[in-house]
């Protein structure tokens, strides 16, 4: 954790507002500081402004593929930032894409709240 407020900072990149806000509430409840971005462009701005500990990235964004954004985060931060990919479409997942993007985990929507908090906490303790 690289932040002075004692909370892990997690960037949520999700273009559907209701899903983004639900994730934001879940993470805040779980003791994280959630930062919501609704596009790749917004995510790049937030990445430049924030000291991130993790990023949760939807695969289908209006201006960039989530796998490509995950690769940018991994390239810029190495293993210092945990990367989680989410999608409501099973056809967007493959283990090859997970490996190529450098993402740590993939979750299918709807998200299991307990599992995502548990796995995110585990990633941040490595």
Written account of the structure:
It is built from five helices and five strands, in the order βαβαβαβαβα. It has 126 residues and is an alpha/beta fold. Strands 2-1-3-4-5 form a five-stranded parallel beta sheet, with helices on both faces. Helix 3 runs parallel beside helix 4 (95-101). Helices cover 43% and strands 20% of the residues.
Task: Name some characteristics of this structure.
single chain; 126 residues; alpha/beta; five-stranded parallel sheet
Uncertain runs: none
Strand content: 15-25%
Largest sheet: 5 strands, parallel
Mean pLDDT: 93
Strand order of the largest sheet: 2-1-3-4-5
Number of strands: 5
Helical fraction: 40-55%
**Gap from first CA to last CA:** 11 Å
- The H-and-E topology, N to C, reads as EHEHEHEHEH
| Cα-atom radius of gyration | 13 Å
Number of helices: 5
Helix and strand composition category: alpha/beta
Any idea what the shape is?
A: globular
């Amino acid at each position: 954790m690289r932040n002075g407020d004692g909370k892990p900072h997690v960037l949520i990149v999700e273009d559907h507002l209701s899903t983004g806000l639900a994730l934001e509430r879940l993470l805040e409840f779980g003791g994280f500081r959630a930062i919501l971005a609704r596009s790749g462009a917004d995510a790049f701005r937030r990445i430049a402004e924030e000291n991130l500990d993790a990023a949760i990235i939807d695969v289908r964004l209006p201006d960039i593929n989530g796998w490509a954004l995950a690769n940018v985060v991994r390239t810029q931060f190495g293993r210092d930032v945990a990367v989680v990919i989410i999608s409501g479409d099973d056809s967007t997942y493959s283990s090859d894409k997970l490996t190529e993007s450098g993402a740590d985990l993939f979750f299918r929507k709807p998200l299991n709240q307990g599992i995502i908090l548990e796995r995110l906490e585990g990633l941040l303790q490595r």
